[in-house]
């Protein structure tokens, strides 16, 4: 029975009951019986009117649905497109990026993935050339290693501002600006005359390319709905993972044949190609964008109104105008020179505060347990990755292996292959797990679509990842420690890559869903904390390897990883509902105030 038929049936039953009661009470009064007959007729008319109203509403719904389908894709005119040099893009901008067809969605995902490969490639491409750089600048390995650790540190800090700017300036503008800077800084790095200049240029180039680490996940959230976001995020992460997959091989080959400076020129060319690719292929995808300056101008200089609707002057200075002044000058407001200067000064100060101070407030999201524990475990995993990278370079370039730069570069292939396979198949697996959990819980909306929750992603896939990669670390450490055949530690590295990627993909996607209105902020916060950990790991890796050896170092890392991983998964399964609801309430309250 449809809702409309049910409503009519209820009204008829109520009308029949009313007539019977009225007849029983007024049976001795003929006049009132006649009035009851009239009331019955009116009731029938009311039923007919209600039925026609239901039919009219159904017709409106059908018409609205048809209209929405017909107007599903609304293209933005070329002269109204948002973003830097937006008229040049070949893919049209639309009002709702969810409406792109599947082909365009996956093409945009590919564009962002290619852009996302740049920063990780820059971090690991010089690993095989560290010894050559040390000799060129007559420095020490510890100092030259800072070119990697500080590169990672800049990748943690700069995304705070990139993500904040992307929510106001848009994604496209940030991509183009950051890659233009990346090209400039790598040119200067290629012509460095001392190790200090080289490290500074590495820091700046890492911060520039790091924009995609936060904004890229925001673009994926802009374009893909929740039900397909897991697979999309897995494909997106193929870019950042293909960087470490190919860069040590490229860096090793170029360092042996052309010298380490050729690596910097390669990054210049690669960054320039990505800039051109984004320029012509990536439209703006942010659903809403309020220009920062215009927003501030409106807040500070817009006239406020009194209870009668009269304009009283700028909102920021309404309290300085008395009721007597309003009565004397109800329609004319004079702004003094002092007020004008104050308005402009306040506007500039507010712009500076929002641009440089407010992005740091992202760190305050760590007060929420759901965010804090996810970021913490992700940071432990990421720092283990960079300690492993340093260990591979230090261990296999020394006796008993004594491999050259090219062979050392090839040794980074196994864990990168694990990343690659886990990204392709892990994303689909997570999407199926989410659908299964939603069906099991019977969560459907009024349209019959499944309702997904972020914590649904953390099931057997998370348990598997949190078990495999810590055990792989322990196996790698002891096989490298005793100098066994190189195949043994490389197999362990493959499983490390597979397990750690399962963790990375799940946690990063969860952060975009815990903070759906500020998806890039969640990813920026994650990058901020985990890259700080990776920076520390890159600095302390070599001294720790010398002090306690690969075996005990990676045993400690493995035990810390497996304990923290199991704790996070257990806590999320037990408390995630409460934490998520509590976080949403606090955020809504803060936004309302």
From TrEMBL:
From the UniProt record, list the coiled-coil ranges. none
Q: Which domain of life is it from?
A: Eukaryota
An annotated Gene Ontology molecular function = polyamine transmembrane transporter activity
Q: Which GO terms describe its cellular component?
A: plasma membrane
Record's keyword annotation contains Transmembrane helix:
yes
**Where does the record place Polar residues bias?**
40-66, 300-311
InterPro entries for the chain = MFS, MFS_dom, MFS_trans_sf
Q: Which PROSITE patterns match?
A: MFS (PS50850)
Instruction: Spell out the subcellular localization from the entry.
Output: Membrane
The Gene Ontology biological process annotation of the record reads: intracellular polyamine homeostasis
Q: What is this protein called?
A: MFS general substrate transporter
- The protein's organism comes out as Polychaeton citri CBS 116435
